[in-house]
Amino acid sequence: MTKLSTQSASRDRSIGGIKKFPKRHLLVVTGVAAAVMTVIGLLPSSQVEAKRSEMELVIDGHQSDDQKDSIKETLKAVANSAPSVSKAPSVSKTPKVAKETEEQRIAREKAKQEAARLAAEEAALGKWQTLTVKSGDNLSTLFNDAGLSARVVYNISKTPKLGKKLTDIRPGQKLKFRVNSEGTLTQMRYVQDRLNSIFYEHTDKGYTAQKVTLTPEIRVAYAEGNIKNSLFLASQRAGIPENMTMELAGIFGWDIDFALDIREGDSFNLIYEEKYLDGEKLENGNILAATFTNRGEVFKAVRYTDRDGDTDYYSANGMSMKKAFLRTPVDFTRISSRFNPNRLHPVFKTKRPHRGVDYAARTGTPIKAAGDGRIKFIGKQRGYGNVVYIQHPNNVVTVYAHQSRVNRKFRKGSRVKQGQTIGYVGQTGWATGPHLHYEFRVNGVHRNPMTVKLPDAAPIAKKERANFKAHASKILAQLEQHSGTMLASNQP
Ligand SMILES: [Zn+2]
Description:
Layout: E1 13-15, E2 18-21, H1 29-42, H2 45-56, H3 65-81, H4 102-125, E3 128-132, H5 139-145, H6 150-157, E4 174-179, E5 185-191, E6 196-203, E7 206-213, E8 217-226, H7 231-237, H8 242-252, E9 267-277, E10 280-294, E11 297-305, E12 311-314, E13 334-337, E14 357-360, E15 366-368, E16 373-381, E17 385-392, E18 396-403, E19 405-406, E20 415-416, E21 421-424, E22 435-442, E23 445-447, H9 465-488
Antiparallel strand pairs: 1-2, 2-8, 3-4, 4-5, 5-6, 6-7, 8-9, 9-10, 10-11, 11-12, 13-14, 14-22, 15-21, 16-17, 16-20, 17-18, 18-22, 19-21, 22-23
Helix pairs in contact: 1-9, 3-4
Bound molecules: zinc ion.
Zinc ion (ZN) is lined by residues 337, 354, 356, 358, 437.
């Protein structure tokens, strides 16, 4: 893994090989490359700083309640401390200022007005209070502790549509509420998680409510790693969390066997999203583009969403990263019987070909459809027990036998997508233990599921090709550029 020398903390933070680029809006993926360049390449750090501090003083409808609260606190602090600043600033955050600039004066004036407005609002609606739900709590116990009557509980839970949601409260969640001088619960916010809350408000006709959903800020980050022994160790060193490493392995897993093919000297890099709220990272988003170099061969993948809203990963020339079929449709513990045209049958002790593969797995393990298709048969058959047949394009049929139960959602003729659960491992029919008996038939002929050459999944649609090409070349160039700068700045 490489390390980047940090030049400016605000412009280009570098932690363990990850560069983070602030980005203010959720961009259409095609815009990502350009946006990254703009932010890191063009904006001097002072401008970025200026923008940030400016934003902290603006209150608008897009901010969360917490954010507003914290802004209000800040404003109050400013309003209260401002007159005494020149004397003896008690808070070290505010450096002693000899002369107040015009800008500062306006900000202080604004803060004062805002503080006054808030004070008036508080007098009318009451102070915000917060209750944190503990295990065993319900609305009645919580309100009782807060000195609110059973009548209030009754009234607010009768709020049209969203009143019932209050029975869902879970430990750790918060209820923020205000009670005015007459003892009326005027407003309440049920904070379900960082992004979702329900806002209740008292009116003459009882309570009304609305859902409030915050959109996280999406930032784009870059990371790269060099492999010494395993992808996971290399990712760890690069500061990439495990679930993202899994995703990366999933994208390239159709071309590279991460258990067998990985060699020292292999490398990877990626551009991915990070979701932020109030400057705090919530979680990682999608991998937008990645390359993986395995034994000198370079694989590239680009995430692309088409006009129908379908998202997938494609190679630089628009081929799907996937195959049309999963090699193994179940997470198995071991292969209990291979494809063998001359096998002795374990139950009948006669020479009977084994025309599929048996994957031993615990009863109840989900079985995935190996590819897109339609259900050709779903139900019971003598030796196969509960079995599903899927008809795929190009005369391919896959068979999944001995299931403990099939997925009732499907019936004959149902469409099924690759990876959907069609049933669960069992030992119905002629089976000596729980396993999936899996067959792959081409033009009616049984082929070995472990070795049959699997066709590629459909490439990018013709009408999407121009769009995709433009997007792919941009973001892949971006990936290459960053990889270049990281290496260059890493020379000892
Ligand atoms: Zn079998």
